[in-house]
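Structure first, sequence second, as always.
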């Protein structure tokens, strides 16, 4: 999709404040309200804007700990990958899961309340995922950067 400067400005503002009114958005990007709304609807229909959501404070939600889990599977056949991916989607504490190149097959970000909570997730879910051969976990000590807005060029 080709984005012009108005589309990029609209997207940048909506990434920072998805609840902004169309009137305010139109003023900020210097468009009429109807033109601005048409552009937002087109961006939604194209799928570039997937959805709108509230961003919760992880600490205040009682899940202050991030654990990065590297998982190696027994085999990397397509059916095995598919079974693993279907199962990992059903673990509520899994925030992100990436198929990787390199030493591990998957990297997963898990949020938990503390080490005991992670032990529960590890034994109840992670080691029981289909095809898992090895699980290597690293606890994040501090979040240095966590961007939520994509850089639009």
């Amino acid at each position: 999709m080709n984005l012009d400067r108005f589309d990029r400005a609209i997207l940048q503002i909506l990434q920072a404040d998805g609840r902004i009114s169309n009137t305010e958005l139109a003023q900020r990007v210097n468009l009429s309200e109807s033109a601005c709304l048409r552009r937002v609807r087109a961006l939604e229909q194209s799928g570039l804007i997937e959805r709108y959501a509230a961003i919760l404070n992880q600490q205040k939600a009682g899940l202050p700990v991030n654990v990065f889990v590297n998982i190696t599977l027994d085999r990397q056949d397509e059916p095995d990958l598919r079974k693993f991916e279907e199962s990992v989607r059903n673990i509520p504490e899994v925030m992100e899961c990436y198929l990787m190149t390199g030493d591990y097959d998957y990297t997963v970000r898990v949020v938990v309340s503390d080490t005991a909570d992670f032990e529960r997730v590890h034994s109840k879910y992670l080691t029981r995922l289909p095809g898992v051969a090895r699980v290597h976990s690293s606890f994040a000590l501090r979040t240095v950067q966590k961007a939520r807005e994509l850089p639009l060029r």
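Margin note: The chain has two domains: 5-46, 65-139.
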